[in-house]
Design a protein that fits this description.
single chain, alpha/beta, Rossmann fold, Methionyl-tRNA Fmet Formyltransferase, Chain A, domain 2, 2 domains, 8 helices, elongated
């Protein structure tokens, strides 16, 4: 058995859950690497990453390189004398970094690889209506999420689950999987499996404004999946047209109801308690929305302060 000396690399909340688990299982963390500070929000105040906040709170050695090939950073990384690096939701590493430790560098990815390589695996598994997903640990190589797999763990996706709840459940599963992976490495019992590429691999494209926009001509199920797959962040959105006004509306929660009707696709129907949009073969009830300049509200609260005309439609 070789005692592990770990450098951890990560940035968002998802990575914090894994880092916390490593620490609580009494593994030695000799350094933490996270994204550089950057201004955020309307006030452009400097914002620390979730991993930085955790590292400061637990007095862990912290590095925040802007250039992962910088000579000074490489020298400082070497000086930590780590024999293993663990990467969770960070960025692509140059070869000089990932090949540095004696025992290698492994990554935890929130999908059942080789499916959903890329930036947003949790979101796309829901958007595509998958019934299962999972996590995979693998040794990093010179491409993105293609390395030899160590462990893979599966989890079911509930029919009405959103990205937030799946994120949290995968973080827990990921923590267990990373600890199991560390144990295998520590006891020199690791076996790996090469990823097999097929023609029908699903990808986890980076999310941007256009692929988060609702297309009301799609099936009700597809729209419902998009909404829950993007909730609470970055959120699905559409343009609400009402007479001369156009409002960009975010949707956080919806309900799909199959029903025959003869309304135009995109017609907006409201009553005292509900807002629904006509789609092919049914309606999407919009349960939780955010109008421009307003906070997130349920449909009933929005209708208390906003009136829509009979001409209102979703575009």
């Amino acid at each position: 058995m070789e005692q592990l000396k770990i450098v951890f690399m990560g940035t968002p909340d998802f990575a914090v859950g894994i880092l916390d688990s490593i620490l609580k299982n009494n593994y030695e963390i000799v350094g933490v690497i996270t994204a550089a500070d950057k201004p955020a929000g309307r006030g452009q105040k400097i914002k620390y990453s979730a991993v930085k906040e955790y590292a400061l709170e637990h007095n862990l050695k912290l590095l925040q390189p802007t250039n992962l090939k910088d000579d000074n950073f490489i020298a400082e990384l070497k000086s930590l004398n780590a024999n293993l690096q663990v990467v969770v939701a960070f960025r692509m590493l140059p070869k000089i970094v990932w090949e540095m430790p004696k025992l290698g560098t492994f990554n935890l990815h929130a999908s059942l690889l080789p499916d959903y390589r890329g930036a947003a695996p949790i979101n796309w598994a829901i958007i595509n209506g998958d019934q299962k997903t999972g996590v995979t640990t693998f040794f990093i190589d010179d491409k993105i999420d293609t390395g030899a797999m160590i462990l893979s763990k599966e989890i079911a996706i509930s029919p009405d689950e959103n990205a937030e709840s799946l994120h949290d459940r995968l973080m827990d599963l990921g923590s267990e999987t990373v600890i199991e992976t560390l144990n295998l490495i520590e006891n020199q019992k690791v076996t790996t499996q090469i990823q097999q590429d097929t023609s029908d691999l699903k990808t986890a494209h980076k999310l941007h404004k256009e692929n988060c926009k609702i297309d009301w001509t799609q099936s009700g199920t597809s729209i419902f999946n998009l909404i829950r797959g993007l909730s609470p962040y970055p959120a699905a959105w559409f343009v609400l047209q009402d007479k001369q006004k156009e409002l960009q509306v975010k949707v956080y929660k919806a309900l799909w109801q199959e029903e025959l009707h003869h309304l135009k696709i995109g017609s907006l129907i409201t009553d005292k308690n509900s807002i629904k949009v006509a789609v092919e073969n049914g309606f999407l009830f919009l349960l939780e929305l955010q109008l421009p300049g307003k906070k997130k509200m349920n449909s009933k609260d929005i209708l208390n302060g906003t009136t829509f005309s009979n001409e209102a439609k979703a575009c």
